[in-house]
Amino acid sequence: MKNIEKLTELVFTLSRITRDGIEEKDNSLSYIQFQTLSFLMKQKNSTMKEISEYVHITAPSTTTLVNNLVRMKLISRIDDKDDRRIVRLTITQSGKKELEKGFVAAIKHLKNVFSKLSKKDRDDLTRVLTKLSKLFN
Hints:
This protein is mainly alpha-helical. The protein has helices at about 1-20, 30-40, 50-55, 60-70, 95-115, 120-135, and strands at about 45, 75-80, 85-90. Helix 1 crosses helix 5, helix 2 (about 30-40) packs across helix 5 (about 95-115) and helix 3 (about 50-55) packs across helix 4 (about 60-70).
């Protein structure tokens, strides 16, 4: 059980390291905004509920998140043609540019972090993370 606890702690640490790279001074996005834009890049015309489920936040928190992203002109709302109660969300060109800036900042940060590992350790980490990713996808 100690091993699982240590792994859990390490996963949270890795998550924080990644988040720190995305939330660098030069980047205007928070981690959750970055996650949302990344999701909308892959899942075009998503609903608020889909975003809520993806980022694991409540509906009221999703509303605040989306309102801020709309105000920043990073996403836009689109009325559903078939059901006027549904509002779809899509990433804008400005959103795509901000997302790219976030990826560049995160990659730069993570390259710096991972450069402290030996090639063998990086290869081992890649292998294990790939295996985990396949298990959950």
